[in-house]
Amino acid sequence: MTDNESPLLALVSQRARGRVPHDFWHDVPKVANPHPKPIQLIGGLPNYQFFPIKGADVQLRDAPFYNTTADTFRSVDVSSDSARIDIKAALQYSEVGGLEPLLEQIRGFVKRVVRPKLQSWEVQCTLGGADGIAKTFDVLVDPGDTVLFEEFTFVPVLGSLVERGGIAVPVRLSAVTEFDYGNELETLLENWTTLKPGLPKPKALYTIPNGHNPLGLAQTIEHKKRVIALAEKHNFAIIEDEPYSYLNFDKYGDPATSYSLSNDEFIASLNPSYTTLDTSGRVVRVETFSKIFAPGMRLGFVVADKALMPFYSGSAAVLTRSPNGYSQMFLNNTILQLGGVEGWIHWITKVRNEYLQRKNVYVGALLSSPAYTKGYLSPIDPSCGMFVSVVINVDKHPRFSGANVHELMELFYVKAVEAGVLVVLGRNMSVDKQLSEPRSNFVRTAISFVDTHDVLREAVNRLSEAAVRLFEDE
Protein backbone atom coordinates (compact mmCIF):
# COMPACT_ATOMS: atom_id res chain seq x y z
CA MET A 1 0.00 0.00 0.00
CA THR A 2 1.36 3.45 -0.91
CA ASP A 3 1.31 6.37 1.55
CA ASN A 4 -1.75 7.90 -0.12
CA GLU A 5 -3.68 4.69 -0.72
CA SER A 6 -6.78 3.97 1.31
CA PRO A 7 -6.19 1.15 3.83
CA LEU A 8 -9.61 -0.20 2.90
CA LEU A 9 -8.39 -1.21 -0.55
CA ALA A 10 -6.54 -4.09 1.09
CA LEU A 11 -9.75 -5.10 2.88
CA VAL A 12 -11.97 -5.22 -0.22
CA SER A 13 -13.68 -8.58 -0.58
CA GLN A 14 -12.61 -11.09 -3.19
CA ARG A 15 -16.18 -10.98 -4.50
CA ALA A 16 -16.01 -7.24 -5.17
CA ARG A 17 -12.41 -7.36 -6.37
CA GLY A 18 -13.15 -10.12 -8.86
CA ARG A 19 -16.13 -8.47 -10.56
CA VAL A 20 -15.76 -7.59 -14.22
CA PRO A 21 -18.34 -5.64 -16.24
CA HIS A 22 -20.51 -7.61 -18.62
CA ASP A 23 -21.68 -5.36 -21.42
CA PHE A 24 -21.90 -5.31 -25.20
CA TRP A 25 -20.69 -1.85 -26.14
CA HIS A 26 -17.03 -1.67 -25.11
CA ASP A 27 -15.31 -4.52 -26.97
CA VAL A 28 -15.33 -2.80 -30.36
CA PRO A 29 -12.65 -1.66 -32.85
CA LYS A 30 -11.05 1.71 -32.32
CA VAL A 31 -12.12 4.20 -35.00
CA ALA A 32 -9.61 6.83 -36.08
CA ASN A 33 -12.13 9.20 -37.67
CA PRO A 34 -15.52 8.81 -35.99
CA HIS A 35 -18.46 10.83 -37.25
CA PRO A 36 -18.90 13.98 -35.13
CA LYS A 37 -22.65 13.47 -34.74
CA PRO A 38 -23.39 9.73 -34.75
CA ILE A 39 -26.95 8.44 -34.45
CA GLN A 40 -27.23 6.37 -31.28
CA LEU A 41 -28.63 2.91 -32.05
CA ILE A 42 -26.80 0.97 -29.32
CA GLY A 43 -28.78 1.10 -26.10
CA GLY A 44 -32.40 0.13 -25.63
CA LEU A 45 -33.30 3.47 -24.09
CA PRO A 46 -36.89 4.47 -24.86
CA ASN A 47 -37.31 8.01 -26.11
CA TYR A 48 -38.69 10.14 -23.29
CA GLN A 49 -41.82 10.90 -25.29
CA PHE A 50 -42.87 7.28 -24.77
CA PHE A 51 -43.23 8.10 -21.04
CA PRO A 52 -46.86 8.68 -20.03
CA ILE A 53 -45.91 11.39 -17.49
CA LYS A 54 -45.21 14.84 -18.89
CA GLY A 55 -44.90 16.77 -15.63
CA ALA A 56 -45.34 16.53 -11.85
CA ASP A 57 -46.56 19.19 -9.44
CA VAL A 58 -45.37 19.24 -5.81
CA GLN A 59 -46.80 21.14 -2.85
CA LEU A 60 -44.39 21.67 0.03
CA ARG A 61 -45.24 21.89 3.72
CA ASP A 62 -44.10 24.93 5.63
CA ALA A 63 -42.99 22.71 8.53
CA PRO A 64 -43.75 19.25 9.96
CA PHE A 65 -47.39 18.96 11.12
CA TYR A 66 -48.35 22.21 9.37
CA ASN A 67 -51.07 21.79 6.77
CA THR A 68 -50.39 25.12 5.09
CA THR A 69 -48.64 24.98 1.73
CA ALA A 70 -45.35 26.87 1.76
CA ASP A 71 -44.59 26.62 -1.94
CA THR A 72 -45.32 24.68 -5.09
CA PHE A 73 -43.17 23.73 -8.04
CA ARG A 74 -43.42 21.72 -11.22
CA SER A 75 -40.98 19.18 -12.62
CA VAL A 76 -41.24 19.27 -16.41
CA ASP A 77 -40.41 16.73 -19.09
CA VAL A 78 -37.42 18.70 -20.44
CA SER A 79 -35.72 21.39 -18.35
CA SER A 80 -33.13 23.93 -19.45
CA ASP A 81 -31.88 24.18 -15.85
CA SER A 82 -28.98 21.76 -15.46
CA ALA A 83 -29.37 21.79 -11.66
CA ARG A 84 -32.87 20.30 -11.91
CA ILE A 85 -33.76 16.73 -12.76
CA ASP A 86 -36.46 16.58 -15.40
CA ILE A 87 -38.86 13.81 -16.37
CA LYS A 88 -36.66 12.92 -19.33
CA ALA A 89 -33.76 12.05 -16.99
CA ALA A 90 -35.78 10.78 -14.02
CA LEU A 91 -37.65 8.08 -15.92
CA GLN A 92 -34.72 6.98 -18.07
CA TYR A 93 -32.05 4.35 -17.43
CA SER A 94 -29.22 6.08 -15.59
CA GLU A 95 -25.88 5.67 -13.86
CA VAL A 96 -25.85 3.27 -10.93
CA GLY A 97 -24.31 5.85 -8.61
CA GLY A 98 -27.09 8.41 -8.98
CA LEU A 99 -28.00 11.37 -11.15
CA GLU A 100 -25.39 14.09 -11.22
CA PRO A 101 -27.57 17.04 -10.07
CA LEU A 102 -28.49 15.17 -6.88
CA LEU A 103 -24.90 14.02 -6.35
CA GLU A 104 -23.83 17.67 -6.49
CA GLN A 105 -26.41 18.57 -3.85
CA ILE A 106 -25.16 15.75 -1.63
CA ARG A 107 -21.53 16.78 -2.06
CA GLY A 108 -22.43 20.32 -1.06
CA PHE A 109 -24.31 19.08 1.99
CA VAL A 110 -21.48 16.78 3.10
CA LYS A 111 -18.93 19.56 2.71
CA ARG A 112 -21.08 22.03 4.64
CA VAL A 113 -22.43 19.78 7.41
CA VAL A 114 -20.43 16.54 7.79
CA ARG A 115 -17.01 18.03 6.97
CA PRO A 116 -14.83 14.93 6.40
CA LYS A 117 -11.18 15.46 7.20
CA LEU A 118 -10.06 13.26 4.31
CA GLN A 119 -9.63 15.27 1.11
CA SER A 120 -10.28 12.37 -1.28
CA TRP A 121 -13.85 11.61 -0.21
CA GLU A 122 -16.65 10.99 -2.69
CA VAL A 123 -20.34 10.12 -2.52
CA GLN A 124 -22.60 7.63 -4.24
CA CYS A 125 -26.37 7.27 -4.04
CA THR A 126 -27.96 4.13 -2.63
CA LEU A 127 -31.48 2.77 -2.26
CA GLY A 128 -31.59 3.89 1.37
CA GLY A 129 -29.57 3.21 4.50
CA ALA A 130 -30.14 -0.56 4.55
CA ASP A 131 -28.96 -0.79 0.96
CA GLY A 132 -25.88 1.30 1.76
CA ILE A 133 -24.98 -1.05 4.59
CA ALA A 134 -25.63 -4.14 2.48
CA LYS A 135 -23.39 -2.81 -0.29
CA THR A 136 -20.69 -1.96 2.22
CA PHE A 137 -20.76 -5.54 3.50
CA ASP A 138 -20.70 -6.71 -0.13
CA VAL A 139 -17.62 -4.58 -0.83
CA LEU A 140 -15.70 -5.55 2.32
CA VAL A 141 -16.84 -8.92 3.67
CA ASP A 142 -15.82 -12.35 2.41
CA PRO A 143 -17.31 -15.60 3.76
CA GLY A 144 -15.81 -16.26 7.18
CA ASP A 145 -14.88 -12.64 7.87
CA THR A 146 -15.86 -11.15 11.22
CA VAL A 147 -17.55 -7.79 11.81
CA LEU A 148 -17.82 -6.15 15.22
CA PHE A 149 -21.17 -4.78 16.43
CA GLU A 150 -22.30 -2.95 19.53
CA GLU A 151 -24.04 -5.64 21.56
CA PHE A 152 -27.40 -3.91 21.02
CA THR A 153 -27.94 -2.76 17.46
CA PHE A 154 -30.36 -2.50 14.54
CA VAL A 155 -30.48 -6.27 14.13
CA PRO A 156 -32.02 -6.38 10.60
CA VAL A 157 -28.58 -5.44 9.21
CA LEU A 158 -27.29 -8.79 10.46
CA GLY A 159 -29.20 -10.44 7.62
CA SER A 160 -27.10 -8.57 5.06
CA LEU A 161 -23.92 -9.69 6.80
CA VAL A 162 -25.00 -13.34 7.04
CA GLU A 163 -26.03 -13.25 3.37
CA ARG A 164 -22.39 -12.56 2.52
CA GLY A 165 -21.05 -15.22 4.86
CA GLY A 166 -19.90 -12.78 7.53
CA ILE A 167 -19.84 -13.49 11.27
CA ALA A 168 -21.12 -10.92 13.77
CA VAL A 169 -19.12 -10.45 16.97
CA PRO A 170 -20.78 -8.29 19.65
CA VAL A 171 -18.84 -5.81 21.78
CA ARG A 172 -20.23 -5.51 25.28
CA LEU A 173 -21.26 -2.04 26.49
CA SER A 174 -20.10 -0.84 29.87
CA ALA A 175 -23.77 0.01 30.62
CA VAL A 176 -26.90 0.67 28.56
CA THR A 177 -27.16 4.14 30.09
CA GLU A 178 -23.71 5.03 28.73
CA PHE A 179 -22.36 4.63 25.22
CA ASP A 180 -18.76 3.76 25.93
CA TYR A 181 -17.14 0.45 25.14
CA GLY A 182 -13.53 1.51 24.64
CA ASN A 183 -12.14 -0.74 27.36
CA GLU A 184 -14.23 -3.70 26.24
CA LEU A 185 -13.21 -3.22 22.59
CA GLU A 186 -9.52 -2.91 23.42
CA THR A 187 -9.58 -5.98 25.64
CA LEU A 188 -11.34 -8.00 22.94
CA LEU A 189 -8.88 -6.95 20.22
CA GLU A 190 -5.74 -7.38 22.33
CA ASN A 191 -6.83 -10.88 23.40
CA TRP A 192 -8.56 -11.94 20.20
CA THR A 193 -6.96 -15.32 19.69
CA THR A 194 -7.80 -16.30 23.27
CA LEU A 195 -11.32 -14.88 23.38
CA LYS A 196 -12.31 -15.76 19.79
CA PRO A 197 -10.23 -18.82 18.88
CA GLY A 198 -10.52 -19.87 15.27
CA LEU A 199 -11.97 -16.57 14.07
CA PRO A 200 -10.01 -14.09 11.94
CA LYS A 201 -9.36 -10.60 13.29
CA PRO A 202 -12.29 -8.28 12.43
CA LYS A 203 -12.66 -6.71 8.99
CA ALA A 204 -14.88 -3.91 10.28
CA LEU A 205 -16.79 -2.34 13.14
CA TYR A 206 -20.42 -1.46 12.42
CA THR A 207 -21.51 1.39 14.65
CA ILE A 208 -24.51 3.71 15.05
CA PRO A 209 -22.54 6.40 16.89
CA ASN A 210 -24.93 9.34 17.05
CA GLY A 211 -28.45 8.43 18.09
CA HIS A 212 -27.77 4.76 18.67
CA ASN A 213 -30.58 2.37 17.84
CA PRO A 214 -32.01 1.29 20.27
CA LEU A 215 -30.41 3.38 23.04
CA GLY A 216 -30.58 6.84 21.45
CA LEU A 217 -27.19 7.87 22.87
CA ALA A 218 -24.18 9.45 21.16
CA GLN A 219 -20.55 8.52 21.56
CA THR A 220 -18.23 11.18 22.95
CA ILE A 221 -15.46 12.57 20.78
CA GLU A 222 -12.94 10.95 23.13
CA HIS A 223 -14.57 7.55 22.56
CA LYS A 224 -14.48 8.03 18.79
CA LYS A 225 -10.80 8.98 18.87
CA ARG A 226 -10.05 5.83 20.84
CA VAL A 227 -11.99 3.65 18.37
CA ILE A 228 -10.21 5.28 15.40
CA ALA A 229 -6.84 4.55 17.06
CA LEU A 230 -7.82 0.92 17.63
CA ALA A 231 -8.96 0.63 14.01
CA GLU A 232 -5.59 1.91 12.82
CA LYS A 233 -3.70 -0.42 15.13
CA HIS A 234 -5.75 -3.54 14.30
CA ASN A 235 -6.50 -2.65 10.67
CA PHE A 236 -10.28 -2.72 10.43
CA ALA A 237 -12.83 -0.49 8.73
CA ILE A 238 -15.37 1.64 10.58
CA ILE A 239 -18.86 1.52 9.07
CA GLU A 240 -20.64 4.57 10.45
CA ASP A 241 -24.41 4.23 10.11
CA GLU A 242 -25.97 7.68 10.55
CA PRO A 243 -29.75 7.73 10.12
CA TYR A 244 -30.45 9.78 13.25
CA SER A 245 -27.59 12.24 13.82
CA TYR A 246 -29.47 15.29 12.47
CA LEU A 247 -32.32 14.72 14.96
CA ASN A 248 -30.02 16.17 17.59
CA PHE A 249 -31.25 16.83 21.14
CA ASP A 250 -30.46 18.86 24.22
CA LYS A 251 -31.01 17.09 27.52
CA TYR A 252 -34.44 17.35 29.11
CA GLY A 253 -34.79 20.57 31.09
CA ASP A 254 -31.74 22.23 29.53
CA PRO A 255 -32.39 25.99 29.89
CA ALA A 256 -30.28 26.68 26.79
CA THR A 257 -32.60 24.68 24.50
CA SER A 258 -33.45 26.67 21.38
CA TYR A 259 -35.99 26.04 18.65
CA SER A 260 -34.71 28.87 16.46
CA LEU A 261 -31.18 27.81 15.60
CA SER A 262 -29.44 29.35 12.62
CA ASN A 263 -27.89 26.93 10.15
CA ASP A 264 -24.45 27.57 11.61
CA GLU A 265 -25.73 27.01 15.15
CA PHE A 266 -27.49 23.80 14.12
CA ILE A 267 -24.36 22.42 12.44
CA ALA A 268 -22.25 23.34 15.48
CA SER A 269 -24.68 21.47 17.74
CA LEU A 270 -24.30 18.15 15.91
CA ASN A 271 -22.25 15.28 17.26
CA PRO A 272 -19.17 14.94 15.04
CA SER A 273 -18.86 12.17 12.49
CA TYR A 274 -16.07 9.61 12.54
CA THR A 275 -15.13 11.08 9.14
CA THR A 276 -14.00 14.27 10.90
CA LEU A 277 -11.26 12.22 12.59
CA ASP A 278 -10.34 9.93 9.69
CA THR A 279 -7.12 10.89 7.92
CA SER A 280 -6.40 7.62 6.11
CA GLY A 281 -9.74 6.67 4.50
CA ARG A 282 -10.72 3.99 7.00
CA VAL A 283 -14.30 5.21 7.58
CA VAL A 284 -17.37 4.57 5.43
CA ARG A 285 -20.32 6.80 6.33
CA VAL A 286 -23.78 5.52 5.41
CA GLU A 287 -26.67 8.01 5.32
CA THR A 288 -30.36 7.88 4.46
CA PHE A 289 -33.06 10.36 3.52
CA SER A 290 -35.67 8.23 5.30
CA LYS A 291 -35.72 10.22 8.54
CA ILE A 292 -35.43 13.76 7.16
CA PHE A 293 -37.44 13.35 3.94
CA ALA A 294 -39.42 10.11 3.62
CA PRO A 295 -38.59 6.38 3.84
CA GLY A 296 -40.67 5.48 0.80
CA MET A 297 -38.26 7.45 -1.40
CA ARG A 298 -35.72 4.63 -0.82
CA LEU A 299 -32.76 6.96 -1.18
CA GLY A 300 -29.52 7.34 0.72
CA PHE A 301 -25.82 7.71 0.07
CA VAL A 302 -22.40 6.60 1.19
CA VAL A 303 -19.39 8.82 1.88
CA ALA A 304 -16.03 7.11 1.50
CA ASP A 305 -12.60 7.40 -0.05
CA LYS A 306 -13.10 7.79 -3.80
CA ALA A 307 -10.86 4.74 -4.35
CA LEU A 308 -13.73 2.58 -3.04
CA MET A 309 -16.38 4.00 -5.37
CA PRO A 310 -15.70 1.64 -8.31
CA PHE A 311 -16.44 -1.28 -5.97
CA TYR A 312 -19.73 0.31 -4.88
CA SER A 313 -20.59 0.82 -8.54
CA GLY A 314 -19.80 -2.83 -9.21
CA SER A 315 -22.01 -3.89 -6.33
CA ALA A 316 -24.88 -1.70 -7.57
CA ALA A 317 -24.51 -2.98 -11.12
CA VAL A 318 -25.02 -6.56 -9.94
CA LEU A 319 -27.45 -6.11 -7.05
CA THR A 320 -29.74 -3.12 -7.60
CA ARG A 321 -28.91 -1.07 -10.69
CA SER A 322 -29.80 2.64 -10.31
CA PRO A 323 -31.68 4.30 -7.46
CA ASN A 324 -35.24 5.26 -8.36
CA GLY A 325 -35.07 8.19 -10.77
CA TYR A 326 -38.45 9.62 -9.83
CA SER A 327 -37.38 9.70 -6.17
CA GLN A 328 -34.14 11.41 -7.12
CA MET A 329 -36.10 14.01 -9.10
CA PHE A 330 -38.48 14.79 -6.22
CA LEU A 331 -35.65 14.99 -3.68
CA ASN A 332 -33.29 17.05 -5.80
CA ASN A 333 -35.92 19.51 -7.01
CA THR A 334 -37.39 19.87 -3.52
CA ILE A 335 -33.97 20.81 -2.16
CA LEU A 336 -33.60 23.37 -4.95
CA GLN A 337 -37.04 24.80 -4.27
CA LEU A 338 -36.20 25.14 -0.57
CA GLY A 339 -33.17 27.22 -1.52
CA GLY A 340 -30.45 24.65 -2.11
CA VAL A 341 -28.27 23.19 0.62
CA GLU A 342 -28.92 26.06 3.05
CA GLY A 343 -32.68 25.72 2.61
CA TRP A 344 -32.41 21.97 3.08
CA ILE A 345 -30.48 22.42 6.33
CA HIS A 346 -33.22 24.79 7.52
CA TRP A 347 -35.88 22.14 6.77
CA ILE A 348 -33.88 19.52 8.70
CA THR A 349 -33.73 21.93 11.63
CA LYS A 350 -37.54 22.12 11.57
CA VAL A 351 -37.76 18.33 11.63
CA ARG A 352 -35.30 18.24 14.53
CA ASN A 353 -37.36 20.82 16.43
CA GLU A 354 -40.52 18.69 16.28
CA TYR A 355 -38.63 15.59 17.42
CA LEU A 356 -37.00 17.56 20.25
CA GLN A 357 -40.42 18.77 21.44
CA ARG A 358 -41.75 15.21 21.32
CA LYS A 359 -38.76 13.86 23.18
CA ASN A 360 -39.09 16.46 25.94
CA VAL A 361 -42.84 15.87 26.29
CA TYR A 362 -42.28 12.12 26.49
CA VAL A 363 -39.29 12.14 28.84
CA GLY A 364 -41.00 14.74 31.04
CA ALA A 365 -44.09 12.57 31.28
CA LEU A 366 -42.00 9.52 32.17
CA LEU A 367 -40.19 11.46 34.91
CA SER A 368 -43.58 12.49 36.34
CA SER A 369 -45.12 9.03 36.16
CA PRO A 370 -46.04 6.91 39.20
CA ALA A 371 -43.77 4.12 37.97
CA TYR A 372 -40.76 6.46 37.91
CA THR A 373 -41.63 7.93 41.31
CA LYS A 374 -41.74 4.42 42.74
CA GLY A 375 -38.41 3.50 41.14
CA TYR A 376 -39.86 0.90 38.77
CA LEU A 377 -38.62 2.48 35.52
CA SER A 378 -36.03 5.00 34.36
CA PRO A 379 -35.98 6.70 30.93
CA ILE A 380 -32.73 7.09 29.02
CA ASP A 381 -32.75 10.71 27.84
CA PRO A 382 -31.55 10.32 24.23
CA SER A 383 -28.92 12.40 22.44
CA CYS A 384 -30.53 12.07 19.01
CA GLY A 385 -33.08 10.12 17.06
CA MET A 386 -36.61 8.74 17.11
CA PHE A 387 -36.44 6.47 20.14
CA VAL A 388 -36.52 6.71 23.91
CA SER A 389 -35.43 3.57 25.70
CA VAL A 390 -36.89 2.92 29.12
CA VAL A 391 -35.02 0.83 31.69
CA ILE A 392 -37.24 -1.46 33.77
CA ASN A 393 -35.54 -1.75 37.16
CA VAL A 394 -36.13 -5.48 37.51
CA ASP A 395 -33.46 -5.73 40.21
CA LYS A 396 -36.07 -4.19 42.55
CA HIS A 397 -38.67 -6.83 41.72
CA PRO A 398 -39.47 -9.18 44.63
CA ARG A 399 -38.80 -12.22 42.46
CA PHE A 400 -35.54 -10.96 40.93
CA SER A 401 -32.85 -13.61 41.22
CA GLY A 402 -30.11 -12.16 39.03
CA ALA A 403 -30.73 -14.80 36.40
CA ASN A 404 -34.33 -14.07 35.43
CA VAL A 405 -34.11 -10.74 33.60
CA HIS A 406 -35.62 -12.27 30.47
CA GLU A 407 -38.53 -13.80 32.40
CA LEU A 408 -39.40 -10.51 34.11
CA MET A 409 -39.08 -8.48 30.90
CA GLU A 410 -41.40 -10.85 29.09
CA LEU A 411 -43.88 -10.45 31.92
CA PHE A 412 -43.58 -6.66 31.58
CA TYR A 413 -44.24 -6.96 27.85
CA VAL A 414 -47.44 -8.89 28.50
CA LYS A 415 -48.63 -6.27 30.98
CA ALA A 416 -47.73 -3.46 28.52
CA VAL A 417 -49.81 -5.06 25.77
CA GLU A 418 -52.67 -5.55 28.22
CA ALA A 419 -52.39 -1.87 29.16
CA GLY A 420 -52.53 -0.92 25.49
CA VAL A 421 -48.98 0.05 24.48
CA LEU A 422 -46.61 -1.79 22.13
CA VAL A 423 -42.84 -1.65 22.67
CA VAL A 424 -39.68 -3.46 21.58
CA LEU A 425 -37.91 -5.67 24.08
CA GLY A 426 -34.25 -4.75 24.40
CA ARG A 427 -33.26 -8.40 24.24
CA ASN A 428 -34.65 -8.58 20.71
CA MET A 429 -32.17 -5.94 19.60
CA SER A 430 -29.12 -7.82 20.83
CA VAL A 431 -26.58 -9.57 18.62
CA ASP A 432 -26.17 -12.37 21.16
CA LYS A 433 -29.19 -12.71 23.46
CA GLN A 434 -27.37 -14.85 26.01
CA LEU A 435 -24.41 -12.46 26.26
CA SER A 436 -26.62 -9.39 26.61
CA GLU A 437 -29.40 -10.75 28.82
CA PRO A 438 -28.08 -9.15 32.06
CA ARG A 439 -28.25 -5.70 30.37
CA SER A 440 -31.45 -6.24 28.39
CA ASN A 441 -33.84 -4.92 31.05
CA PHE A 442 -35.11 -2.10 28.83
CA VAL A 443 -37.65 -1.47 26.10
CA ARG A 444 -37.29 0.72 23.03
CA THR A 445 -40.16 3.11 22.38
CA ALA A 446 -40.63 5.20 19.22
CA ILE A 447 -41.82 8.81 19.43
CA SER A 448 -42.05 9.22 15.67
CA PHE A 449 -45.32 7.69 14.48
CA VAL A 450 -48.07 9.00 16.75
CA ASP A 451 -50.04 12.03 15.61
CA THR A 452 -49.94 14.26 18.68
CA HIS A 453 -48.08 14.97 21.90
CA ASP A 454 -51.18 13.97 23.85
CA VAL A 455 -50.90 10.46 22.44
CA LEU A 456 -47.33 10.31 23.76
CA ARG A 457 -48.56 11.34 27.21
CA GLU A 458 -51.20 8.62 27.12
CA ALA A 459 -48.57 6.09 26.06
CA VAL A 460 -46.59 7.01 29.18
CA ASN A 461 -49.68 6.50 31.34
CA ARG A 462 -50.02 3.01 29.93
CA LEU A 463 -46.31 2.21 30.30
CA SER A 464 -46.45 3.36 33.90
CA GLU A 465 -49.53 1.23 34.55
CA ALA A 466 -47.74 -1.81 33.11
CA ALA A 467 -44.67 -1.23 35.28
CA VAL A 468 -46.72 -0.76 38.44
CA ARG A 469 -48.61 -3.96 37.71
CA LEU A 470 -45.35 -5.82 37.08
CA PHE A 471 -44.03 -4.92 40.53
CA GLU A 472 -47.21 -4.86 42.58
CA ASP A 473 -49.44 -7.62 41.17
CA GLU A 474 -47.39 -10.41 42.69
TrEMBL record:
One of its GO terms (biological process) is aromatic amino acid family catabolic process. Gene3D superfamilies: Type I PLP-dependent aspartate aminotransferase-like (Major domain). Residues 87-462 form the Aminotransferase class I/classII large domain. It holds the Pfam family Aminotran_1_2. Coiled coil: none annotated. Belongs to the class-I pyridoxal-phosphate-dependent aminotransferase family. PANTHER family: AMINOTRANSFERASE (PTHR42790), AROMATIC AMINO ACID AMINOTRANSFERASE 2 (PTHR42790:SF2). This is Aminotransferase class I/classII large domain-containing protein. The lineage of its organism: Eukaryota, Fungi, Dikarya, Ascomycota, Saccharomycotina.
